[in-house]
């Protein structure tokens, strides 16, 4: 890439006479300084805009919803419903959507389970929307069921997040010896996540853009974890990181499950406290892709319910 070079300044008028009036010399000095300032400003503006890749979309601070789709396994009908659900929510609250395909990250994932694609997908979204503040990863096996609730009023506002934060709670239920810190404030938090009865739930989390976010995603996606052969792949990798890396735990808020990811009644490890109830923000069909279940069939009644909500809203 080549950058424009600031135009060379024309030499100031010079007289060979040593008798140039002093007042003219004094006039020329501010003119020269002003000329230098103007050309410097033009150069900086041009240099700044040529540095922004054409693939980057610069938008005001806000929220980007990241949805990772496995287009080889999900039908077009199913995908269209998920996309419609996300686009409606984003349009209502001025958010952006980032729809990624699992196959986009095949080379990076290698032989590890495809579910590891969450980390590079979120990192990709951060690169595309560098001026957004929050990135809300949401499993494709989930629906936003309360479209009127913004993330700001529901979770992100200072008073709301401090109310939701689970302090001195086991990271991995029910009795992990590693617990959330009891002295964290909203200003300390960069990662908001929930858990079910056995593990953390990477199917729904909110990550604040910044140095910590990049560090966290790089750590989570490290080959050491991807190749460790965890029984639950990226979920157990996340369990490990939050339990044994206090640097990450110190920036994490654990919130009640129903605040950002209620489970459907048929979901794996659904508990009375974590099962969807009318008014909850999100319903997740955890494990619906497993043998004996049907994601499209489980989605359908809730999708129709959501359609009824947005049509009467």
From TrEMBL:
<dbReference type="GO" id="GO:0000136">
    <property type="term" value="C:mannan polymerase complex"/>
</dbReference>
<protein>
    <recommendedName>
        <fullName>Alpha-1,2-galactosyltransferase</fullName>
    </recommendedName>
</protein>
<feature type="transmembrane region" description="Helical">
    <location>
        <begin position="51"/>
        <end position="69"/>
    </location>
</feature>
<keyword id="KW-1133">Transmembrane helix</keyword>
<feature type="transmembrane region" description="Helical">
    <location>
        <begin position="28"/>
        <end position="45"/>
    </location>
</feature>
<keyword id="KW-0472">Membrane</keyword>
<keyword id="KW-0328">Glycosyltransferase</keyword>
<comment type="similarity">
    <text>Belongs to the glycosyltransferase 34 family.</text>
</comment>
<dbReference type="InterPro" id="IPR008630">
    <property type="entry name" value="Glyco_trans_34"/>
</dbReference>
<keyword id="KW-0808">Transferase</keyword>
<dbReference type="Pfam" id="PF05637">
    <property type="entry name" value="Glyco_transf_34"/>
</dbReference>
<dbReference type="InterPro" id="IPR029044">
    <property type="entry name" value="Nucleotide-diphossugar_trans"/>
</dbReference>
<dbReference type="GO" id="GO:0006487">
    <property type="term" value="P:protein N-linked glycosylation"/>
</dbReference>
<dbReference type="GO" id="GO:0000009">
    <property type="term" value="F:alpha-1,6-mannosyltransferase activity"/>
</dbReference>
<keyword id="KW-0812">Transmembrane</keyword>
């Amino acid at each position: 890439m080549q950058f424009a070079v600031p135009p060379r300044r024309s030499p100031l008028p010079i007289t060979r006479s040593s008798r140039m009036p002093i007042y003219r010399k004094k006039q020329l000095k501010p003119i020269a300084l002003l000329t230098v300032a103007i050309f410097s400003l033009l150069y900086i503006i041009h240099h700044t805009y040529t540095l922004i890749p054409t693939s980057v979309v610069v938008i005001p601070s806000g929220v980007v919803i990241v949805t990772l789709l496995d287009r080889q396994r999900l039908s077009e009908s199913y995908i269209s419903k998920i996309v419609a659900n996300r686009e409606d929510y984003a349009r209502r609250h001025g958010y952006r959507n980032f729809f990624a395909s699992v196959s986009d990250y095949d080379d990076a994932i290698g032989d590890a389970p495809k579910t590891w694609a969450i980390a590079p997908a979120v990192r990709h979204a951060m690169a595309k929307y560098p001026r957004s503040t929050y990135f809300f990863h949401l499993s494709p096996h989930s629906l936003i069921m309360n479209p009127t609730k913004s993330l700001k009023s529901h979770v992100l506002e200072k008073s709301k997040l401090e109310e939701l934060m689970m302090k001195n709670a086991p990271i991995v239920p029910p009795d992990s010896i590693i617990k959330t810190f009891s002295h964290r404030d909203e200003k300390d938090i960069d990662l908001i996540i929930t858990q079910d009865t056995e593990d953390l739930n990477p199917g729904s989390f909110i990550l604040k853009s910044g140095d910590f976010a990049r560090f966290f995603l790089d750590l989570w996606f490290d080959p050491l974890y991807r190749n460790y052969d965890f029984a639950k792949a990226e979920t157990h990798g996340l369990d490990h990181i939050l339990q044994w890396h206090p640097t990450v735990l110190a920036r994490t808020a654990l919130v009640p499950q129903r605040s950002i990811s209620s489970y459907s009644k048929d979901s794996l490890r659904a508990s009375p406290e974590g099962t969807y109830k009318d008014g909850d923000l999100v319903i997740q069909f955890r494990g619906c892709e497993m043998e004996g279940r049907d994601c499209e069939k489980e989605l359908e009644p809730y999708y129709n319910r959501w359609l009824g909500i947005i049509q009467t809203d």
